[in-house]
Each structure stands twice: as structure tokens, then as C-alpha cells.
Amino acid sequence: MEDPDIWTASKLISAPATDGGKARIPMLKHKVDGQESLACSNEEKSLTLAKCFFPAKPEEDSTQPVHRYPQQCTKNTKIMAEQVHNRIKRLKPYKALGPDGIPNIVLTKCADILEVRLVNIYEGIFEHSLMYKPWKSFTTIVLRKPGKPRL
After folding, report:
1. Which of 28, 34, 102, 146 could form a disulfide with 39 if both were Cys (CB 3.0 to 4.6 A apart)?
2. Which pLDDT score is estimated for 4?
3. Which residues have C-beta within 8 Å of that of residue 91, sequence separation ≥ 6?
4. CA distances from 150 to 64, 77, 140, 142 (A)
5. What is the DSSP letter of 42?
6. Which residues pair with 35 in a beta bridge?
């Protein structure tokens, strides 16, 4: 597959079941080591689709360049429960999970229980100048929608 299209694959996979006499997904053209190849069997097709839609994560570069960061903000502001409440209300409940694995719907439905605890956590973080490492990373999943240009 040169130009992977998740929507076409979804359409083919979602088609009604057949008697098994005909393949549901046509043969797929793809490149292996620069040479064009055809995936004919279901196993080859599944491996081809998996490689296109779920490529391996790039290796992390351990040689980070030395950055010059601005001076840390020293303004000591108190975190208010109202601020936490307002941020929780603005969450979209069914977005993909972050690195912590906590769905937004849990935060929105349990806001009254969690607000005080979250305020204490954030105050502790600011008091001791800490940063929880998983909060520094995120995963972005990009899906192209039908009819929208490829960016």
C-alpha cells in the first residue's frame, strides 16, 4: 500500500460476512526493501496492514542537544479547587487515554471526590519544584478523515 487509507480498510473489514469462498480484502501492493510485492494470503495482508497503520516507534535519541532554558518562574501562586474544577469540566470525556491510563470520563464523573486530592498533589509539585515524568510525554494519533486534505 502506497497511500494507506484507514477508511477504505474499515469499509472492507466492515462488509457483511460471506460464505468464505471469496476474499474480503483484495490483494495489497506494498514495498519490501524497495521492491514492490503483493500480499495475497490473509496472513500477508494482515502483516502489511499492521506495518502501514502501526509503524514501529522511532528510537529515542539519547544524544540530546544541550538547551538553554529560561529562568524558572518563581511566582508562588496557590492552586485553587475552583481552578481544578474548571479544568476538569473542560475535558472531553471520550478522548484517547494518556500515558497515565486514566480516562477523562472518570475524572469528569468523580470530580467532586478528586478535586481536593488533585489540589494537594499540584500544591506539592509546585512547593517542591517537581514534575511527574509521565506528564512530560504524550502520544498523538493522527487519522485522516475522508474528504480532508493530507497535511
Report:
1. 28
2. 58
3. 104, 107, 108
4. 31, 43, 16, 11
5. H
6. 32
The sign of the CA dihedral 4, 149, 140, 9 is negative
- C-alpha cell read off for 47: 502483516
The dihedral over CA atoms of 108, 113, 117, 122, expressed in degrees to the nearest 10, equals: 20
Q: What is the pLDDT of residues 104-131, one digit of tens each?
A: 999 999 999 999 999 998 888 888 878 7
Written as nine digits, the cell of 132 is: 511527574
Find the farthest-apart pair of alpha carbons in the chain and give their distance in angstroms, rounded. Answer: 70
pLDDT score at 23:
52
Return d(Cα 121, Cα 135) in angstroms, integer: 13
Percentage of the residues of the chain whose pLDDT score is greater than 70: 84
Residue carrying C-alpha cell 494518556: 98
- In one-letter notation, the amino acid at residue 146 is P
Q: Which run of H or of E encompasses 15?
A: none
Q: What is the pTM of this model?
A: 0.45
Provide the mean pLDDT of the chain.
80
